[in-house]
UniProtKB/TrEMBL annotation:
GO terms for molecular function: oxidoreductase activity. Keywords: Cytoplasm, FAD, Flavoprotein, NAD, Oxidoreductase. The lineage of its organism: Bacteria, Pseudomonadati, Pseudomonadota, Gammaproteobacteria, Thiotrichales. This is Nitric oxide reductase. Pfam families: Pyr_redox_2, Rbx_binding.
């Protein structure tokens, strides 16, 4: 019998493998990953430095132990180069492997900052354990770090590296941080708190060019010709689902690999979840959605076809200087924020236009204790529906 095969050993790949093993301890199982395959919690990457955590300390279960626990074959440092869904086969260069069912858990890759210059390849991304290792090495000789992007990851790194003793500048074309998720007042509060701690914000600005200068430093030139000299540039302008393999194999791909509520792609026995997948139009690059998807998919893989459901899923922003919890309203919902502010404690409630129906919330400071109260009032993001 050919193995159920999972491409990817991130949180999505390993969670579906674990859930599968709870239901079927014996079916042949293979995982394939381009990286080292150790189990770690990726969200830790953006608050590990100030806690003096080395990459090794972030590994909760080494790959050998994962293979034993899961009773699975794990191929590490192995890039799948082609899918042949019509033959139930995948390729690793010239070598072919046959699967019974295939799960794509290929993650997302960082969007490259569009700017010119001969040193653009020196821009760092931190989306894997090995990239975190590389960042830590680069930081050994650095004093000043520039972060491009003021979304969740950019702000978390700014807080962490400032706390870790670096001088930090954030550049973003947005006019306030977390602008895609929170109302202006919350973004401005985060901006003010980090600024008071020494973070420099260059908002509403775009990087045009990066050039090397003396002593292994860089000079960034912005579109308005302002310049910033720095030791390290981290790009955190967003992530895009990894869809290359799927696209080449003829799977339906929009922003992510398109799957239905059963996590099925348009090809028989091929499924997708995690950062690479688009489920009923939703591309959610967070941990909670992939956990829900993994539980449903494991059942489907053992023959108990199960639709994924999403409850409302709050996001805890890892900026300890300014604690924030967000349950962002769905993009398709039309409504308004109602904000109450008491110093640094903000409660933002997003109501659907002309209704009393809550569709999202944001809480800062002491208001965070209200999380469960508001969460209970939110409708599920993907409701259960009949098979
Ligand atoms: C710095 C940072 C902080 C974050 N903080 C939070 C947070 O606080 N809360 C939250 O909910 N989410 C957070 N996230 C998002 C969350 O970590 C991701 O949604 C989640 O880890 C994605 O898991 P994944 O398994 O889908 O993808 P990944 O972890 O990216 O795994 C992809 C896997 O696919 C493999 N792969 C890809 N292509 C191939 C190929 N062709 N052949 C073989 N292997 C391949 C890779 O090697 C890897 O093993 C954060 C993300 C980052 C980067």
């Amino acid at each position: 019998m050919h193995p159920i095969t999972i491409i990817g050993t991130g949180l999505a790949g390993y969670t579906v493998a674990r859930e599968l093993r709870k239901l079927d301890p014996n079916c042949p199982l293979r995982l394939i990953t381009a990286d080292e395959g150790h189990f770690y919690s990726k969200p830790m990457l953006s608050n590990a430095f100030s806690q003096h955590k080395t990459p090794e300390m972030l590994i909760t279960t080494p790959v050998e132990q994962m293979a034993e626990q899961l009773q699975a074959e794990i191929l590490t440092h192995t890039l799948v180069t082609q899918l042949e869904p019509q033959w139930h086969r995948l390729k690793i260069n010239e070598k072919s492997l046959t699967y019974s069912q295939l799960v794509l858990a290929c993650g997302a890759k960082p969007i490259v900052t569009p700017c010119t210059g001969t040193v653009t390849e020196k821009i760092l991304f931190v989306n894997s354990l090995s990239e975190y290792r590389y960042l830590r090495t680069a930081l050994q000789k650095a004093k000043h770090v520039t972060i491009i992007g003021a979304g969740l990851i950019g702000c978390e790194f700014a807080n962490d590296l400032q706390e870790g003793g670096f001088s930090v500048t954030i550049i973003s074309n947005a006019t306030y941080p977390l602008n895609r998720l929170v109302p202006t007042s919350v973004g401005q509060l985060l901006q003010q708190v980090l600024q008071e701690r020494g973070v420099t914000w260059l908002l509403g600005k775009t990087v045009k060019h990066i050039a090397p200068i003396a002593s292994a430093r860089y000079q960034l030139t912005l579109v308005d010709n302002q310049t910033v000299a720095t030791d390290i540039v981290i790009s955190a302008i967003g992530l895009r689902p990894q869809v290359k393999l799927a696209t080449a194999a003829g799977l339906t791909v929009k922003e992510g690999i398109v799957v239905n509520r059963y996590l099925q792609t348009n090809m028989p026995d091929v499924y997708a979840l995690g950062d690479c997948a688009q489920i009923e139009g939703l591309v959610l690059l967070y941990v909670m959605p992939l956990m829900n998807a993994a539980r449903a998919l494991a059942k489907t893989l053992v023959g108990q076809t199960t639709a994924v459901t999403y409850p409302a899923m709050p996001i805890v922003v890892k900026t300890p200087a300014c604690p924030i919890v967000i349950s962002p309203p769905p993009k398709t919902v039309d409504g308004q924020w109602h904000i109450e502010t008491q110093g640094q404690d903000i409660r933002g409630l997003f109501y659907i236009t002309n209704t009393q129906q809550l569709a999202g919330f944001v809480l800062t400071g002491k208001m965070i204790t209200e999380k469960m109260t508001w969460l209970k009032q939110l409708p599920p993001l993907l409701k259960a529906h009949c098979h």
